[in-house]
Amino acid sequence: MDNLSYHLHPLVRGRNESFGLLFYNTRDTLLTFVRCGDLLRIGPAAGGISRLEVHCGSEAERGKVRRVLRGLAQKGLIVETGVSA
Amino acid sequence: MRQEFLHRAKLKAPVNVTWEVTARCNLHCRHCLSADIGGFSEAELGFDESKALLDALKRMEVFQVNFGGGEPFMREDFLDLLRYAHEQGVTTCISTNGTLLTDAIVEKLRNMDLLYLQVSLDGATANTNDAIRGPGTHGRILEAVKLLHRHCIPHVSINTVVTGANFREIGDLYDLGKRLGTKTRLSRFRPSGNGKKAWDELRLDSLQLAELSHFLSDHPDIVTGDSFFSITAFDRRELGLNMCGAARMTCSVLPDGSVYPCAFLHDGRFLAGNVRTESLQSIWDNAPVFELLRNTRVDACGSCWRFSICHGGCPAVAYFLTDALNRPDPECVASFRTVLQPAPTAGQAYQSP
Fold first, then answer.
1. For testing contact with chain A, the best of B5, B63, B249 (most A CBs within 10 A)
2. Domains defined along chain A, listed by start
3. pTM of this prediction?
4. Are the Cβ atoms of B9 and A18 closer than 8 angstroms?
């Protein structure tokens, strides 16, 4: 996770909420609620792409974010885009 | 889905908005929930006002708009509205009776990726359907579904409002959907609109509700639009929202722009505002009636073994049948379980007969 960046799948919408993130999959209209607080945020869309921003400090937080990202990627909601700068 | 926190959380905007874009309709269905909005046809939002509302939905990051009516295709500019919604990235779901669909219209729908279509059919047989939706409609509706299939429209479902009149045909409707390549969607009959007048005749009795609960458990591919959480069995609880979404996840806009907590609470007491005079965001954030819905707790259900999968059920049904929002849903399986079998112990799944 530390060196990878992620963005929302083009067919997925998402928004920041007080509890974390809310995803909507246009392929089936299903919702996914992610209770991650501010650890993950959806950044402003650029060129039609919305990137995920990771804000975590402790190892425990990193572990939690890793699990969340893995689950979201498995569901096809986010896409790994490579090594971040 | 662990949803307990949603009961307390306030989303910054609806997830979806149900928008009755017109009160005009070419059919006069006996159970129509929108029959009370007939007086709004003169004051319908115009095309520019409608575009402004879609712009607002985009700004609010609303994911989906459910177009209903009336019959949405009665609006001459409806295809343009659909196109504009999709340009804003908003997914659309149309509830239609199907009878106005033509080759030319469906060809245009074919190019719309963010489109879901629900075609209403209220019986597997013409006798049953036509008694509710009008003479000759069964054949016309099936032709519409076949037309959509021929044009390869991907997300089509047949939507049936389950009543005492068609209850014995639900299995046949499910098989019909399979044959026609559509999903089956079942909706709850509610005592709103024309449903108030037809309630005693068309409502399900407790044994039918229990049987329906069992049927839904056996058919997880049937979509219910969360309307049946009052009878949802434990094995379906991960398939949808397990509580009322009014003013929490959704709200409803009428043809004249007036806003209500949901499509089943179009009663003057629940008017939250109008998008002609106030932004939808402001209404969502500040309308007292929305706060009322968000804070409604069905205390009588708090200790019930089913509370985690229904949170008291549908407040609209409770309101129209008991005149109070915070009463238990009168059609909840918990209310008649003792008639059917001994109550299960905590954590045990309810088995209907």
1. B63
2. 4-83 (3.90.930)
3. 0.91
4. yes
